[in-house]
Amino acid sequence: MAECDVKKIDVGDGAAIPEPGDRGMVSAWWIALLGTIGLLIALPLKDPSTYGRVLAFIPDGILVTFEVTILSISLALVIGLLTGLGRISKNRYINLVASLYVEVVRGVPLLVQLFYIYFALGRFVRVPDIMAAVIAMSFCYGAYMGEVFRAGIKSIDFGQSEAALSQGFNQAQTMRYVVLPQAWRTILPPVGNEFIALLKDTSLVSILAVSDILRRGREYAAESFNYFETYTMIALVYLLITLILSKIISIMEQRLSHYEKR
Amino acid sequence: MKNADPIIRIQNIDKYFGTFKALDNVSLDVTPGEKVVVLGPSGSGKSTLLRSINQLETIDSGSIIVDGHDLSDPAEDINKIRMEMGMVFQSFNLYKHKTVLENLTLAPIKLKNMTESRANEIGLSLLDKVGILEKADSYPVMLSGGQQQRVAIARALAMEPKIMLFDEPTSALDPEMIGEVLEVMVALAKEGMTMVVVTHEMGFAREVADQVVFMDEGAIVEVGTPDHFFENPTHERTIKFLEQIL
Fold first, then answer.
1. Closest CB to B97 among A162, A165, A181
2. Are the beta carbons of B215 and B44 closer than 8 angstroms?
3. How many CB atoms lie within 10 A of CB B180?
4. Which value does ipTM take for this structure?
5. Tens of pLDDT along B188-238?
6. Whole-structure pTM value
7. Annotated domain spans of chain A
8. Do A260 and B96 touch (CB under 8 A)?
C-alpha cells in the first residue's frame, strides 16, 4: 500500500530528476548540461550582435523568476501542508474545505487562475504585480502540494504514530516530531518536481507585467526582431536552471535517505 | 500482594469492531508490581485488551481505571496517563528517522522538559542495561529484530513508567533472537516492574507470571497462577489450547 502511494506521486510535471542507477538519465543529464553550457557560451561568441545582446537582458529577468519561484514555493508549501493535514483530518468540515479547495484549483487552468486572481484581486486591493503573481501561483500550487503532503503522510507506517501516542505525545506533537520528518523524505522528490514545474510555470506571469526571464526576452525581441535568437537563449537559460535544480534535489534526496541505508 | 489496591482496574469492558465483538465483558485487576501474562489463540482479543489499557483502542462500554485515572473521564488528559505506561509493540515501531539514542531521548526531552544531557545520560544507561550500548548512534534499520526490540523496551523505560505493556514482543522475531528479548523482560520483572504481557511464550509465562489470563473469543475464560494454569487447568477450552501449544 505505502509503496504504491509513493510510486504514484513519483512522476510529476517538473524536470526529470536523475536518480543514481538510472544510467540513461544520468548520461542524458550530463550531455544536456554540457551542451547547454556550451551553446550558452558559443552562440554569443559567434554572434555577439544578436545572441550576445539577448544575454544583457536576461539577468534581471532571472532574478525576478527566482524571486517569484521562491516566494511562491514557500507559500505553496505552507498552504500544501495545511491542505494535506486538512485532507486527512477526521473533522469533516475541515476535510471538506480542504478537499473543495483542491477540487476547484485542479479544475481550472493555471493561466486562467493567474488572470482571475490578478484582475479580480485588482478590483478590490492594489497589490504589486509580483505579489499578485506569487499569490496566484502559490494558490494553485498549494493544492497540488497538498496532495503530495497527504500521500507522504499516509505513506508513513501507522505504527510510528502509535509508538509516539503510546509515549504520551498528542496528535500534533506526533505529527511534528515523528510523522512529518519521515514524510518529508518521501515527499522530497515530488516537492522538488513541483518546485521545478513551478519555476517553469512562472514564465506564465510574464503576461501579468512581471519582468521575468521570458518577459525581458520578449521586450528585447520586440525591439530587435531577433525572435529566433532570443527564444533560443531563453530556452537554454531555463534548461540550465532546471538541470542544476534537478541535480541539487537528487543530492538532497540521497542526503536525507541516510537513515534508510543498512 | 493481592490485597494492594489495583493500579489497573478493568471492569466489564466491551469492544466492537463493526459488528464483531472483540472484547466481551472483560474484567481484570492488576496490582502494583504484578506480572500478568495474557494467553490465547490469535483473534481472542488479547491485543485489543492490552491496547485498550492505554487507549490505543477505545472501548464501547465498561471502565478502565489506571493509577486512579478513569480513562473514560473527559477531564482526564490521556497523554499524561500514557506517559505512565510504556508500550512495546510486536513490530518494534522504533522512530526510523532517529538514532537509537535519540529514540530514547525524544519523549523525555519533549514531554518532560528534560535537558538533552540528562536525557542522554539516562538513555545511555538504559542502553547499557539492555546490552546494546555500542549501537547508540546507529539508525534502527541497521539493527537486528532482537536488537530493535531491546531498544524499544529501553525507549519505553526512558519515560520511567509505572506500568509496562507488551504486545506480543517476540512474535515478529527470528527464533534465535527471542531469548535476548525475553532475558531483558525477565530482568525487568525481577526489578518489580508492573507488567502486562501478551505473548505466546509459555516458558516466560511459567517463569515470570503472577497471574495467567487465558482469553478466547473476546472473553476471559480462566485466570490463575502459572501452577494452576499449566498443571490443573479447569476449563475445557484452556485444556484444548494447552494441548495445541505444548
1. A181
2. yes
3. 19
4. 0.94
5. 999 999 999 999 999 999 999 999 999 999 999 999 999 999 998 889 999
6. 0.83
7. 23-261
8. yes
